[in-house]
Structures are given as structure tokens and as C-alpha cells.
Design brief:
The complex is a heterodimer of chains A (about 325) and B (about 425).
Chain A (H helix, E strand, L loop, with lengths): L2 H10 L27 H32 L18 H8 L3 H31 L5 H9 L6 H11 L6 H8 L13 H28 L4 H9 L4 H12 L1 H16 L3 H6 L11 H10 L3 H31 L3
Chain B lengths: L1 H19 L11 E6 L5 H17 L3 E6 L3 H14 L5 E5 L3 H6 L15 H4 L2 H6 L10 E6 L2 E5 H6 L9 H11 L7 E3 L7 H12 L4 E2 L2 E5 L9 H17 L9 H9 L3 E6 L3 H6 L9 E4 L9 E3 L2 E7 L6 H11 L2 H10 L13 H4 L4 H8 L4 E3 L9 H16 L5 H16 L1
Helix pairs in contact in B: 8-10, 9-10, 9-17
The chains are: A mainly alpha (about 325), B alpha/beta (about 425).
Main location (chain A): membrane
Family (chain A): Belongs to the binding-protein-dependent transport system permease family.
GO biological process, one term (chain A): transmembrane transport
Chain lengths: ~325, ~425
């Protein structure tokens, strides 16, 4: 029996409730269930209950979004609000005309890819390890998940000190281990600063992957692994043909979420390097904060809109690309 | 069913209405409630402010003050939102960097008429009176104190290196810091500022080198109207400053901001530090260096023996949208005079605004004495207004910080940097 057939069997096998008597699936009329009539009065009641939430969302989410969007097309400078006239695409032109913009985009791509790959690999490994039963597993899980509860800005400040060339722990440990002779100026050398912020972000983000993947792993029935073992499948084959296909949907969605979040995550860099040295760790969102600090909300809003547009395009392509794969039965 | 519908609609309406209602300052029963907002918040300072406010309330039983203390990093944004809404703020903290844009937007009240004949003016130093008026003579805030640079130095290390006196000029500083620098022993000469606000010390060096020609009304302008960056002395200043980094500072100070600089001096690894007086309290608590191992000296001078005090300031002002301006001004007056002012400057390690402070033993002795020396010798330590109120100040700071970093990383020469800064300010002033 192959691993794939084991999957099919397990889904209707013992220990799993059959559809008979359970929640019905599929579309169309449901026999035996009386459909409640939709009346105006009932509609009003529903609307009344929904109204506070709808008003809240409209006032605190959609209004600021729309107001912020139109700001991108205005001369909206906090230093002089006496003239907030319509300027069309001027703010966008200024964004593209800035000589640092190319560096900022390249850094953002490196920031996302360089963070997500180690986060995924280490998070996966951690989740596999935490899935096994061992003493104090709960305690270990809590310790692993702890970083996710800390503010990104605080993590940035903590790592800023850890990576400090003269007083930091990182250089001290590397020197004591005999790996380096001279302290490395991690946050001062242009080619090292990005490595330092990526290490910090990996430490921070591994947790989320571990949480998500562990939850997905726990939904894989043990029978599958037992069947695979009976079939003589090794660890690698089990991983590639059972574990990964089974949690593919979770993996795809977690990667999508993390790409969006990492792209929109200036906190850590802001606390750690402030985008320096010489803009070497400047990403789109730290750049946006920088422009906001100058009081140029028009240009900052233009950058915000570009981020939303870019992430929408990415999410669409990513979901299209992963849908086919997710539809293939493991 | 109908009853339920009515109940649901009522609940929804109540929720919406309560969510949308605004809180307005009360003035019931003849008592006025003022809303005061601070921006450079820290817990100890907030407690101090609360105790000063309690004294004010005791003296003015019909005025209540509600203090709002947003976290420093969000404070300006929050105050701007409050000011933009037009109501909700009476007295507020205004800094030399925020007064320009906020008054430009019509958010601040000109207190000049209200303060006509106020006896507090006579007790204030010349610097304080000057700082309380903008170029058009309007009074948008009364300073509560000044932040000014002085040189923190290690008495033991300079002695060991063979020097009897702390450096008096930038050249002396370079010489002494270079002699002390020994990276192998993790001993560094100067706590260089290459990260956030790197522009401040760089321009302080330039101003020292052109002190004789600088326009007292604008620290970035020469008396002939050109920028200070175009003067030949500016190039000497930047070359010395670059040498100070290369020969006498930790390599990683490319990214050093305030915390690293202060830590570097406090933990004993660097011998010199240019910082504000608030650092006196931090260094005093150091467990690595004792009080006998360090002191402060006046800000180092240029080749002429003169220097410019790059004073930064902040103070209390009144919002234009305030409905209780008279009471709000009264609170500003209270905080800007007598014991309230002295208490505030002492406990916040600020250069005081009151003349009487120079007679106070607190300021006359120890590390504070260098600030008194500078105040008492205005011919040598020139008081020059910095253009910190211009609308492009933050943009300039960010640009200049990045340029200083480029220069010390070897990607920009001092000459090109100065030409660029000259062009930047010339264009802005057109």
C-alpha cells in the first residue's frame, strides 16, 4: 500500500466520523430542514444588530483608508497645512525620483526573502521536534513561542545591544569560541548590518511558523505514518510524501501571511539600525516612517498606496500559483 | 418580535451615540479644567509635573489641570492630531523644532499681550527671553530650560596620557583622544556620534570654526549672508572631525546614537563625550567609573578660541483652540518662574532659565560648573539662534545624518559634503 492510498483510506477509516448523521455538506436545498422566511422585520433586526459594528468599521477603518489614499494626491505637509491642494501624481513622482528608492526596493526584497526562508526551515524543524512527545513539552512550546509576544521595536533595541561591536554579547561569544579575532562592527559595516537584522528577524519569526506548522502537523492522523512505516518509507520519503503534502495549504497560507507581515514590519529595523548605515537596511516601510517624520504625509501616503498595490498583486499571483498545487490530492 | 426589534434598534443607537460622543472640558460650578499635554515624557518627569500642578491647583482652587502624558515617540503625532481637531488642548509642551510648523498652521496662541508686564521676565536669563520670541516677536512658548553641549571627560585617562588640562579646542580634543585610543585594550578616545542625530555634533564643530563670522540671528548663516558651510573654516572643521572618527573613535560608532555614546562613556571605554547636561545624572550612577574619574569641561572651541553654543530648547505654550486661554497662560507663568521652574530644571538636568540659578550651589559645583562658565562668558561661548524652527528641519536632520555616515564610511569627501550642504541651505533660503 502506498502512502497516498493510506491517506485515502484513513479519511474514511475507523476513528473518523462518517458523513452519515454528521453535518451535511454540499449546496442546494437541505431536505428535512425548514427554511425560515426572510421578512422585512427580520431584515431590520439583522441590520440593527450589525449597525454598530458596521459604523465602527466604516469610521475607524474605511474612512481613514480613503482619507489616507486621497492624501497621496495632495500637497499634505504637516509643516504647512494652509495649502493642501490637489497635486495629482506629484507625490508618486517624488517617490520614484528619490535616488535611494532603488536601494530601498532591493533591500525590501532581500529583507523578505532573507527572513522567510530561514524562518520557514527552522520553524518547520522546530515544529517537527515539538510534535514528538517528551517531558516538559508544554514548557518548551511556551518558551519557543515566547518571542512572538514581544514588541518588534523592543526586539530591535535588544538586538542592537547584542550586536554592538564593543559591548555586545554576539562578538564576545564569537571571540570566546575562537571564530573571530577582532570584533565585527555588525551595525556599522554596510555589508554586515543587513545580516544582523535578518538574524534578529529570523529569531523573531521562527515562532509563528512553528506555531502554525505544529497545529497543522497535529491534524495528520498517526495511521498514515504507521502505514508508511509498514510500506518501508524512510524519514525523508515520509516527510516529502505525507507530511508536506498534508500541510501544504497551511504552509502556503502561512508563507503568504508572513510575506505580507514581514514586508510591513519596520519596527525591528527601526529599533535596531534606523535604516542605516548609509540606508543599507532601509526598507519601504522604514522609508515611509522617515518621510512621515519629515511631515510629508502626502508622499508617505503615496508610498503606503504603493505597498498596498504591490502586496495585492503578490497575493493574487501567489494564491493563483498555489491553488493548483493545493487542489492536487496528496 | 416588535419589542425585540425596538430593543435592538435602541441598543444599536445607544452604542453608536455613546461611541461618537466627545468629552469636553468641564467648566461647571465656575471651576475650569485645563488639559495639558507633555511630549518629552518619562515617568519621573511626569511625577514631577504632577507635583508642580498640585501646587498650582492649591494656589488656584478654581482651576483643575488634567495632564496627558503620551509616550515620547508618539507624543508629537498625538499632539498634532489634538491641535488639528481644534479643541481638547489648553497648555502644551512646545519645542524649538515644533514651534515653527505648529505656529505656521495656526495652532499656537501668541501670549505676548497676556505676558505684557509679567514680572517673570525680569528673573529670566537673556537666553531664555530671547528664546521665548520668534523672528516676528511673537511668544508661542516660554522655555523651561535649555539643552546645551559640554565635554564630558575622564580625568584619570587624560592624566595617564600626559595631559594636565581637558581639551579646550577641537584640535586639542583630537590630540588627546588619539593619544588615549587603544582598541586592543578596548579603550577608545571619543564617543563619536555617527547614528541618529549625527548632524548635531558635526555642525557644532563647523560653527566653532567659523564662530567669528557667524550671524547671531542664524547659526547656519555667515554675517555676509552665505551659509557657514561655504566658509573655508568649515572644511578644516570637517577634516578634523573626520580624523577624530578615524584616529580616536570606535569603528562601530558609525551607528552610535545617544544610548551607545552615553553607555560608552559610562562603562569606562571612551574618554570623551559631547552631550547634554541630562547625561550628568546617568554618568553619576555609573558603577564602572567613580565620581573622581570624570568631570565636564565647556564646549570645545575653534581656532579663534571661540565657539557657538548650539542650544536647544523647549517650553510651555497655549493652544489657539483653547477655550480657557487666560487660565492656560496662568499655568505657563506658574511653571516658568520661582521654585517651580528651579525644581523642574534641577530635577531634569536642564540649563536653567532663571538668572538666580548661577548663584545656586547646585549649578556652581562639580560637573554643572562648566555650564555656568559658558553662561558667564558669552564673548567666548557665543549665543546664536539655531534655525531649528524651519519647516524642513527634520528633513535636514535626516539628510545630514545620512551624509555624515557616508563621509565616515569613506563614500563622501568632506569637501563634497560641505558643497552639498551649502547648496541645500542656499536653495532653501531663496
Amino acid at each position: 500500500m502506498s502512502a497516498a492510498s493510506a491517506t485515502a483510506k484513513s479519511r474514511s477509516g475507523p476513528g473518523r466520523p462518517s458523513h452519515k448523521g454528521g453535518a451535511p455538506s454540499g449546496h442546494g436545498a437541505r431536505p428535512g430542514r425548514r427554511r425560515r422566511e426572510f421578512t422585512t422585520r427580520r431584515g431590520l433586526l439583522i441590520a440593527a444588530f450589525m449597525a454598530p459594528a458596521a459604523v465602527f468599521v466604516a469610521v475607524f477603518t474605511y474612512y481613514p483608508m480613503i482619507a489616507g489614499s486621497q492624501m497621496a494626491f495632495r500637497n499634505w505637509k504637516l509643516t504647512d497645512l494652509t495649502d493642501t491642494s490637489w497635486v495629482g501624481w506629484k507625490n508618486f513622482h517624488e517617490v520614484f525620483a528619490d535616488p535611494a528608492w532603488g536601494t530601498v526596493l532591493a533591500n525590501s526584497a532581500l529583507w523578505v526573502v532573507g527572513s522567510i526562508v530561514p524562518q520557514l526551515v527552522i520553524g518547520f524543524a522546530l515544529a517537527l521536534w515539538l510534535r514528538r512527545r517528551f517531558r516538559f513539552r508544554g514548557l518548551y512550546q511556551a518558551l519557543v513561542f515566547f518571542p512572538w509576544a514581544i514588541s518588534g521595536f523592543l526586539i530591535g533595541i535588544l538586538f542592537r545591544w547584542l550586536f554592538n561591536s564593543e559591548f555586545g554579547v554576539v562578538n564576545d561569544l564569537l571571540q570566546k569560541a575562537g571564530l573571530i579575532d577582532q570584533p565585527i562592527a555588525w551595525l556599522a559595516e554596510p555589508d554586515k548590518a543587513m545580516i544582523a537584522v535578518l538574524v534578529a528577524n529570523t529569531w523573531y519569526g521562527v515562532t509563528f511558523f512553528a506555531i502554525m506548522i505544529l497545529a497543522a502537523l497535529q491534524s495528520i492522523p498517526d495511521e498514515l505514518y504507521e502505514a508508511a512505516a509498514l510500506d518501508g518509507a524512510g524519514k525523508v520519503r515520509t516527510l516529502l510524501q505525507i507530511t508536506i503534502p498534508y500541510i501544504r495549504t497551511t504552509l502556503a497560507l502561512t508563507v503568504l501571511l508572513r510575506v505580507i507581515w514581514i514586508f510591513n514590519f519596520p519596527d525591528l529595523i527601526f529599533g535596531m539600525t534606523g535604516g542605516g548605515p548609509n540606508n543599507e537596511t532601509q526598507i519601504v516601510t522604514t522609508w515611509m516612517i522617515r518621510i512621515t517624520q519629515q511631515g510629508d504625509y502626502g508622499q508617505a501616503s503615496a508610498i503606503g498606496l504603493l505597498v498596498v498595490a504591490g502586496l495585492l498583486v503578490f497575493a493574487t499571483f501567489f494564491l493563483m500559483a498555489t491553488r493548483e498545487k493545493r487542489e492536487v490530492k496528496p | 418580535m416588535r419589542r425585540r426589534t425596538v430593543l435592538a434598534l435602541g441598543t444599536a443607537a445607544a452604542l453608536v451615540l455613546t461611541g461618537c460622543s466627545t468629552m469636553s472640558p468641564s467648566s461647571a460650578g465656575g471651576a475650569v479644567t485645563l488639559t495639558m499635554v507633555e511630549s518629552l515624557t518619562n515617568p519621573a518627569r511626569t511625577d514631577l509635573l504632577k507635583s508642580l500642578i498640585a501646587d498650582f491647583q492649591k494656589q488656584n482652587p478654581k482651576i483643575k489641570v488634567n495632564l496627558i502624558s503620551p509616550p515620547t515617540e508618539q507624543a508629537d503625532q498625538k499632539i498634532q492630531q489634538m491641535l488639528q481637531s481644534g479643541t481638547g488642548v489648553d497648555t502644551l509642551e512646545v519645542r524649538d523644532t515644533t514651534v515653527g510648523p505648529w505656529s505656521n498652521n495656526g495652532w499656537l496662541y501668541d501670549m505676548k499681550k497676556d505676558l505684557n508686564g509679567w514680572k517673570g521676565w525680569q528673573a529670566m536669563t537673556e537666553n531664555a527671553v530671547k528664546a521665548s520670541q520668534d523672528a516676528e516677536g511673537k511668544t508661542y512658548f516660554i522655555p523651561y530650560g535649555f539643552y546645551g553641549l559640554s565635554l564630558f571627560y575622564r580625568t584619570d585617562l587624560i592624566k595617564k596620557a600626559g595631559f594636565s588640562e581637558p581639551p579646550a579646542t577641537w584640535e586639542d580634543l583630537l590630540k588627546q583622544a588619539t593619544a588615549i585610543q587603544d582598541p586592543a585594550k578596548r579603550q577608545y578616545g571619543y564617543a563619536f556620534r555617527g547614528g541618529a542625530n549625527a548632524n548635531g555634533n558635526a555642525t557644532a564643530a563647523i560653527e566653532a570654526y567659523v564662530a567669528d563670522d557667524v550671524d547671531p540671528a542664524n547659526g547656519f548663516k555667515l554675517k555676509d549672508g552665505r551659509t557657514i558651510f561655504s566658509a573655508p573654516g568649515a572644511l578644516d572643521a570637517m577634516e578634523t572631525y573626520l580624523k577624530l572618527f578615524k584616529q580616536a573613535s570606535p569603528k562601530s560608532s558609525v551607528s552610535w546614537g545617544y544610548p551607545e555614546m552615553v553607555e560608552g562613556f559610562s562603562n569606562g571605554s571612551t574618554a570623551f563625550l559631547l552631550q547634554d547636561p541630562e547625561v550628568i545624572a546617568t554618568v553619576s550612577e555609573s558603577k564602572s567609573i567613580t565620581k573622581s574619574q570624570w568631570n565636564t569641561a565647556p564646549l570645545v572651541a575653534g581656532p579663534s578660541g571661540k565657539t557657538v553654543q548650539p542650544l536647544a530648547t523647549a517650553g510651555w505654550g497655549v493652544a489657539k483652540g483653547s477655550k480657557h486661554k487666560a487660565e492656560a497662560v496662568k499655568l505657563v507663568e506658574f511653571l516658568s518662574q520661582g521654585e517651580a521652574s528651579t525644581n523642574f530644571t534641577k530635577k531634569n538636568s536642564l540649563v536653567p532659565i532663571l538668572k538666580s540659578a548661577t548663584e545656586d550651589s547646585f549649578y556652581k559645583t562639580g560637573p554643572w560648573s562648566s555650564y555656568v562658565t559658558m553662561t558667564e562668558n558669552p564673548d567666548k561661548y557665543l549665543v546664536v539662534t539655531q534655525p531649528r524652527g524651519v519647516s524642513w528641519w527634520t528633513e535636514w536632520q535626516q539628510k545630514a545624518d545620512a551624509d555624515v555616515q557616508k563621509m565616515i564610511l569613506g563614500k563622501l569627501t568632506p569637501k563634497k559634503l560641505l558643497a552639498d550642504w551649502d547648496a541645500y541651505w542656499t536653495a532653501k533660503w531663496k
